[in-house]
Design brief:
The chain is α/β, with parallel strands linked by helices. The chain has one domain: Flavodoxin domain (Rossmann fold, 3-Layer(aba) Sandwich), CATH 3.40.50. The chain is built from 5 helices and 6 strands. Strands 1, 2, 3, 4, 5 and 6 form a 6-stranded parallel sheet that branches. The protein is globular, with a radius of gyration of 16 Å. The chain starts with a strand and ends with a helix. Bound molecules: flavin mononucleotide (FMN). Flavin mononucleotide (FMN) binds next to α1.
């Protein structure tokens, strides 16, 4: 079986984002089992139909990255009981058809969701809203297991570095499950 590719989409643009660090921990954990890249999308403009066609170069780049990935893994913070606007903006761009011939790139993509927050709910409300959106876009969501990590500060050192302790086995479990989920979808094709 060919090596699968996973594209991580982090819902925070913050340099030292805990969610970005969680994505990097997943990358390290997965190692050689899959190609694992983080999508950089700071240069995506705000959605504006006046500039939609032809698509800006940055939009073309992220669409190509999503299109060629076997699976998409979201790592999202929670902002005001929702997922951040930067992520909604990115998904709005990705949700649009590329051309009359080609449909949007998210449809049918195997997808996993994780998140970490300093608060008690551990991004679960943000994740629920994200599931509503990406299900509407026909993504193939792995609803179990999802990973919600609360009380982030208990697993962050005084340099702001995430050192996963009790949550590590859950990340491991989710990574294993997601690899199997993607493989099963490839076999079904
Ligand atoms: C505008 C805003 C709203 C926030 N609302 C929530 C919230 O509803 N629930 C929560 O758990 N944390 C909330 N937070 C705190 C974030 O969880 C925290 O800043 C976290 O570190 C952001 O993720 P990151 O480290 O990946 O950037 C909020 C932060 C911001 C900036």
């Amino acid at each position: 079986m060919k090596k699968i590719s996973i594209l991580a989409i982090v819902g925070s643009l913050r340099k030292n984002s805990y969610n970005r660090q969680l994505a990097l921990a997943a990358k390290e954990l997965i190692g050689e089992q899959a190609d694992f890249e983080l999508l950089e999308y700071q240069d995506i403009p705000l959605m504006n139909q006046d500039i939609e066609y032809p698509a800006p170069e940055a939009v073309k780049r992220v669409r190509d990255a999503v299109k060629s990935a076997d699976g998409i893994w979201f790592f999202t913070p929670e902002y005001n009981h929702f997922f951040p606007g930067v992520l909604k903006n990115l998904i709005d761009w990705l949700s649009r058809p590329i051309s009359k011939q080609e449909r949007q790139v998210l449809s049918g993509k195997p997808t996993a969701i994780s998140g970490i927050s300093p608060a008690m709910a551990g991004t679960s409300l943000a994740q629920d809203h994200l599931v509503t959106l990406i299900s509407f876009l026909n993504m193939d969501v792995m609803n179990a297991p999802r990973l919600t990590i609360p009380n982030a500060m208990q697993q962050v050192d005084n340099q702001g570095k995430l050192a996963l302790k009790e949550s590590y086995p859950y990340l491991e479990k989710q990574a294993d499950a997601f690899i199997r989920f993607i493989q099963s979808r490839i076999q079904d094709k």
